[in-house]
# Entry
Amino acid sequence: MGTPSMRFSESAEDPFALGRGASAVLDDQGTVVGWSARAQELLGYPAKEVIGRAWQDLLVDALDLPAARSVVVDAMRAGGWFGVLPVRHRDGRRVEMGFRARAIARDGDSREWVLVGAPAAEVDAWQRDRALLDGLYRRSPIGLVTYGPDRRVIRINRAVEKASGVPAEAPVGHRPREFMVDEDAGPTDERVRHVLETGEPLIFTEQSARARHDPGRERIVSVSAFRMEDPSGRVLGVAETIEDVTDRHRAQRRLALLNEASVRIGTSLDVTQTARELAEVAVHGLADYCSVDLLKPVTLGDEPVPGASGPLVRVALSPPEHRIPFKEGDVVTLFPESPQARCLYERRPILEGLLPLRPEWYAMDRRRIEIALGLGVHSLIAAPLVARGLVLGVVSLWRSRNSEPFEDDDAAVAQELSSRAAVCIDNARRFTQQQSAALTLQRSLLPRAASDLPSVEVACRYLPASGEPGIGGDWFDVIPLSGARVALVVGDVVGHGIHAAASMGRLRAAVRTLASLDLEPDEVVARLDDLVSLLATELEANTDGNGSAIEQMIGATCVYAVYDPVSRHCSLARAGHPAPVMTTPDGQVTVVDLPAGPPLGLGGLPFETCDLDVPEGSLLTLYTNGLLEARDGDIDVALEHLHECLTDSTAPLDSTCHAVVEALLPKEHPPTDDIALLIARTRVLPPENVATWQLPLEATAAARARQLTTAKLTEWGLTELACTTELVASELVTNTYRYAAGPVTLRLIRTHCLICEVSDTSHTSPHLRRALSTDEGGRGLFLVAQLTERWGTRYSHDGKTVWTEQPLPHA
# Structure
């Protein structure tokens, strides 16, 4: 029924405290010799009715007497007793009372018994409070720390001792900084100070906790704190409850890491950037260091061969200033027994909790081992990067110094992280492969660097779009024409990707074909308009089930210019394209007043040709709209910058191109649209290199042509070509006399080759045919074709011109 504890407490909550408990004194015979006023209040007996009477006759019913006597025996043996007994109230009702009994020695062998009693409900409540307090310190799974007013530890319970490994008595008398790591002790001490000064309780505040004797073991604890005060309001200290929530915190952190990975990894379609994003995310929430090694074909955008292994390239390392044990760009050699090699072979994460103890760790290069050990690495997870069944590489996660070794749960997170990242890396690799193929196609369709032409000096730039938009359909071309003329063309196909590049190639080929016919610029643009309409119709037929085109090209724009170095005459036409800019030798920069025309592909709308005279040494600048829209989309401001870069017409053209690109393209952001830029400085053939004659349309014209040709070639020192050229001129003039009307013009031009031209007012095209042995004529053009390197016919509004080209003897 009780315990032998005989300690008397004087706390206000103690039901046996003086002033609260009922007291009585019994002699050796059990006779009541003392009775308090509180006893009278609780049991109803006044002192005069109780003193001198036996306690069992007065206070105990007959039914409870055996139990009471048993208590007496136990108390006499133990010298005291504590427990609950039913007693009789003066009004006859039964009252449950809690008692404390203690023997007091008197003279000789006699002794008296002091009894202190209280209502059983109060005693039980007090006992529960004491049991709770005792449980908090001895059996509670939640940690409890009490601090004094000086913020020093008064007591900690066993839960704290068990979790931290610090003996319960070790922190007593010390402040947190003396037994916790500094970065954790500071917040703890500040928290205690705040609660002491303000009295504001803290509820479920999470923080890191690491003991000085084991700094590598980090625990996350949830702390609640309140200020302790006595009944008078005097501050006694602070009590903290501490719950270890490390497992929950780590689970939340791992989940947050995976969520963060889904947002931060794969923001671009660049293999290296994606690998760096993986390394940065891993270091942010899982490891101290991370390295990403990819198979070399993957870094180039190629697909790795299934089952094949090859050299790995370190693509990313975080933090980048450390080298564990290779730096970015290094070729990583794996030993067969290394964790990374096993990881790739088994296609599963490999966890090494105590890395320096593994013998294969020391099979690596000693210098790199020293670097790694110098950083204090001690734990490793190697996780494979696998996507679509293909091994792309391996990610290595490292922990060092005070970090705890990796656990199995960390390996599971690393597997999930690497799986997600592998898909992003593979997407970037496939994009790089397609981008490279499309860019290769596009560059193969663009002209090589223009050679030195007698009509113009040319410099150009082509900048493909970067990132997701992919390559576009921008192109430029420099096409030599007959009569030392040149065609300059810049165009832009709507859309991006390989289909736009292929469409651009078809348009460029069409422009070259049309240019070889020596058509007027407006006629060339009109023919291109028909071709683009045809291409759009073809693409509309290549639709999927939703009716969307595989790569819908709804139009294109272009500008086409023909420059004649003999007459300094330039003819231009454009179709919805930015107008060219002309810079005269005096530094005047103007936009050519050229009718815009509709974009190619609309069909049925006219185009116009603009003619202008261009001074020698002028610059003609043609470009696509991506150049003006690259920086901030303000076309007017971009045009001002462009004009500023083009004011010096004598500067080297490559320098001018570079200046334009630097001024109009932001350095921090690569272009999102293709950019084509073509700058041509005009030249004029010296008058002494051109000879022109008007011949009458009569039978003697051929003979006159031979005489003039021989004389001029002799003057030019080209007597070796005189015989051939006079025969060519004679045949062409003879055909004109036979089949054309009006005056005949004979022109010789000396450039990098010898050009002979015969013009008339007829639009009838000459035909090359093989004459029969019985024919009296029909061999003229055949002879011309055999004696010259090239020949052809061009047309104008006034007639046609048949031209030939012969290489110079010294060429």
The two ends are 128 Å apart (CA to CA). The chain is about 35% helix and 30% strand. The CA atoms of residues 13 and 89 lie 25 Å apart. The longest strand covers residues 94-105.
